[in-house]
């Protein structure tokens, strides 16, 4: 399906992309801690809201 060159390029691209993304995340980690202090509560609220919607859907379906 893919040639040997395309497969090698895809593997090297994926590895380099993951390394660069990890490096940039670690570089900006201290900034993220300052700017996004309350995000975990917003995410928790969002997930609880989604769970609530699924519970309502299941209750109405019965």
Automatic annotation (TrEMBL):
On the tree of life, the source organism's domain of life is: Bacteria
Which UniProt key words apply to this protein?
A: Membrane, Transmembrane, Transmembrane helix
Q: Which stretches are transmembrane?
A: 6-26, 38-60
Q: Does the keyword Membrane apply?
A: yes
- State if Membrane is listed as a keyword: yes
* Name of the protein: Uncharacterized protein
Organism listed in the record: Flavobacterium difficile
């Amino acid at each position: 399906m893919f040639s040997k060159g395309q497969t090698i390029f895809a593997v090297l691209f994926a590895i380099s992309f993951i390394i660069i993304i990890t490096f940039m995340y670690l570089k900006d980690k201290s900034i993220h801690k300052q700017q996004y202090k309350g995000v975990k509560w917003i995410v928790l609220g969002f997930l609880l809201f989604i769970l609530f919607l699924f519970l309502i859907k299941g209750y109405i379906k019965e």
